[in-house]
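Let's study a protein:

___
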Amino acid sequence: MQNVLLILAAAAAVLCSPVLMLIAQPPPQAGEVALVIASPWGKSAAEVAAQAGVQEIAPERAPMGALVLLETPHSLDRLYRQGAWIVVDGRKVLELCAN
């Protein structure tokens, strides 16, 4: 029984590690690219970005994510107020999408 718990804990750590790495990053600053992630049952990330007044920079959209440019120091706060779940540094995602 103890081995099963250890295996489940190890599996949970492996499955959660990508999300934890995203959340553990420092927040993006003004002038940087950010990935906005919205809830699956609410407004889309594109709607959140539009209502927050930030510009989308990628021609393609994901159902729950959008790449935006944070133009001012207050852009991050506006995104969260409009319903963004997570806003993280989008440079790596942008590099993956560009290739």
In short: The domain at 27-98 is CATH 3.30.70 (Alpha-Beta Plaits). Residues 41 and 64 are 9 Å apart (CA to CA).
